Amino acid sequence: MRLGVLFSGGKDSTLALHMASEKDSVVCLITVISRNKESYMFHTPNVDVTGLQAEALGLPLVRVETEGQKEEELADLEKAIRQAKAQYGIEGIVTGAVESVYQSSRIQRICNSLDLGCFNPLWMHDQKALLETLLAKQFQVIISGVFAYPLDEKWLGKQLTQDMIERLVALQAKYGLSPSGEGGEIETTVLDAPLFEQRIEVTDSAVEWHGSSGVYIIKKAKLTPK
Fold first, then answer.
1. Alpha carbon of 15 to those of 2, 98, 128, 146, 204: distances in Å?
2. 52 lies in which domain range?
3. Cβ pair 46, 9 in contact under 8 A
4. How many domains does the chain have?
5. Cα–Cα distance for residue pair 59/35, rounded to 1 Å
């Protein structure tokens, strides 16, 4: 089956891409760039890096912008999926949804309207196990946003490690945080993965912190040999 992947450049969509490619043919990536940093649907930190990630993966990227207004942004997502279907003949969509019924139900509705399959390979998997799968498969993942107490700016830009996973699980027990950020607590950016033909090297970055949340901004990056 020819599949398009809804791709934010974060850990979940990249792992979903990896799992989908083991069984089917991934022919394109689909990225919606939201001007609203508090979008209900779309990952925003460092989403521009998807261009480099697509190049590293050797896959075409369908990019559509949206104002990111709740529910209205779904029309822009449908536009992107329609474009991918027309250009690349996709028969289904892959998402990185783990627990978000809000996102998965809306994507399913769009796929139904376009006569496309909808696949969620990470759906309801144990979150700690998913994080450990990333390490086992040698994904290089960094924290690009934190949005919940007691996470602070010291987490930003740090690479996912087993020690970090254990800390996140401990915070889940104490504060109810989702270890993989399913509640919006954490955003990530993937710099390398098994399917990447080159890895991404960050050459300039900055941290922005406001009150109790912040982002790690990749200002410049380049592809380097693995």
1. 18, 11, 14, 20, 26
2. 2-119
3. yes
4. 2
5. 24
Distances (CA, A) of 53 to 84, 110, 154, 183: 18, 25, 25, 25
- How many Å is the maximal CA-CA distance in the chain? 48
Q: Is residue 125 part of a domain?
A: no
Domain shared by 183 and 111, yes or no: no
Q: Do 181 and 94 belong to one domain?
A: no
What CA–CA distance (Å, rounded) separates 107 from 161? 31
pTM, two decimals, is 0.94
Residues 176 and 145 in one domain: yes
| Strand ranges (E), the chain | 2-6, 25-34, 61-66, 92-94, 117-119, 140-146, 186-192, 198-210, 213-225
pLDDT lower than 70: segments of the chain: 36-43, 68, 71
Distance CA(154)–CA(121), nearest Å, equals: 31
Same domain, 110 and 144: no
Cα 14 from Cα 7, distance rounded (Å): 7
